[in-house]
Specification:
Order of helices and strands: HHHHHHHHHH
Number of helices: 10
Strand content: under 5%
Helix content: over 70%
Largest sheet: none
Distance between the termini: 46 Å
Shape: elongated
Structural class: mainly alpha
Oligomer: single chain
């Protein structure tokens, strides 16, 4: 009960941390989409790149998050951004690459060969087949990678509070330092709600963007 009283009395502060947390995740995953989807397309076209690219992104994902955030500090200290938003967003961006690149690669690689032959038969170029035929069909799987990246990194971004990035991780950090279970429970609840809510919204957006014929 004390936790809910705390949440009610500090609703404005919690809302601001939630907005900040969501903004950081959206920036990181947004950049990962802009880089990861073209990279997935590239390794489909040039198959010899697939193994090294997927291996590298997998290795990054195996690094413990607290260690990766720590590694960002000396790197960005060279430009005076050792702590704060920049290293946090960069680390979460790196974590987001694997699900996006992998799902793009899987979705496009598993398309029927007949689609390619039909496209060539009517004179479509590679880029025309890609944008008009292949990506619309592959969109649900690609979107699945984006949803995975968002949900996973809402939790990862909470750890970024230790390097001064802010967000809902501050509630956890302060809860631990002050031995205050209200802050810990509030932080955990809000992070869970944010992850579930974003997954639901992205699922709805996926349905809207997927062509009707493919949905059926």
């Amino acid at each position: 009960m004390e936790t809910f009283v705390y949440m009610w009395q500090n609703a404005g502060y919690i809302a601001s941390l939630t907005g900040q947390h969501l903004m950081l995740v959206c920036i990181a995953v947004g950049v990962a989409i802009l880089i990861g989807v073209p990279l997935g397309i590239l390794i489909v076209r040039y198959k010899w790149l697939a193994t090294p690219v997927l291996s590298l992104t997998t290795i990054v994902l195996t690094i413990p998050s607290i260690a990766l955030f720590g590694l960002m500090i000396p790197v960005f200290s060279l430009i005076g951004q050792g702590i704060g938003i920049v290293p946090a967003v960069t680390a979460v961006f790196l974590y987001s690459l694997l699900p996006i690149v992998r799902n793009t690669h899987i979705a496009l690689s598993n398309l029927s060969g007949g689609l390619h032959e039909a496209g060539r038969g009517i004179g479509m170029t590679f880029w025309q087949r890609l944008f008009w035929v292949e990506i619309p069909i592959a969109l649900p799987v690609i979107f699945g990678g984006v949803r995975t990246a968002v949900v996973m990194n809402i939790g990862v971004m909470a750890i970024a509070a230790v390097i001064g990035a802010g967000g809902l991780g501050l509630l956890l950090l302060h809860g631990i330092s002050r031995s205050d279970p209200r802050l810990l429970i509030t932080g955990a609840i809000m992070i869970s709600i944010l992850a579930i809510g974003m997954d639901f919204l992205l699922h709805r957006l996926q349905n809207i963007m997927t062509p009707r014929g493919i949905r059926q």
